[in-house]
Amino acid sequence: MHDQLHQLISKNVKLSDSDRVLCTQYFEPVLYPKNRIIEEEEKIPRYLYFVVSGFVRLFHYNDKGDEITTHINCPPGFITSYSHFTSQSKSDENLECITECELLRITKPDLDLLMQQSSVFKDFSFLIFQQSLSYNEQRAKELATLTAEKRYLKLMAQNPEILHNVPMQYIASFLGMNPKSLSRIRKQIVK
Length: 191
What we know:
Elements: H1 2-12, H2 17-26, E1 28-32, E2 37-39, E3 47-53, E4 56-61, E5 67-73, E6 77-79, H3 82-87, E7 94-97, E8 101-107, H4 108-117, H5 119-145, H6 148-158, H7 160-165, H8 168-174, H9 179-190
Antiparallel strand pairs: 1-8, 2-7, 3-6, 3-8, 4-5, 4-7
């Protein structure tokens, strides 16, 4: 399971044999069933997760009690409620496995130790958090400026596997629309 993580890290920084050993030591493999909440709102996120296989989403409830999906992660990649994980504060989001998932996870104290023991992981962690900030800025901009149809077309082009593995109500919420609007857009595109 650690091979995918090693490969991702190696694309960005040089990974030594001792770094690989540390990675395997600190990242714990876990398997979760479909629809399992693995981090709950009103609690401090315990882990940063690396998605080996499966689909995971971050969501919260709006003031009407509706689920709002803020992030869908497909492999390979990292997911958690980043700002709450790094500050070790209570999150307002839930993390749920949409499908059965193979994950690697690491606690904040272990991540801190890993970064102290390896400059490679310090550099790589900094890169991942930078990418997370950049992604969130870009996503906020797209939700504000792109039409619903353009957001859907962009998702189709960049992450088509999400369309085949994630329920439409989660995709609609992620794209900032209701399921009826998404259904209408999909029908128009098929024509």
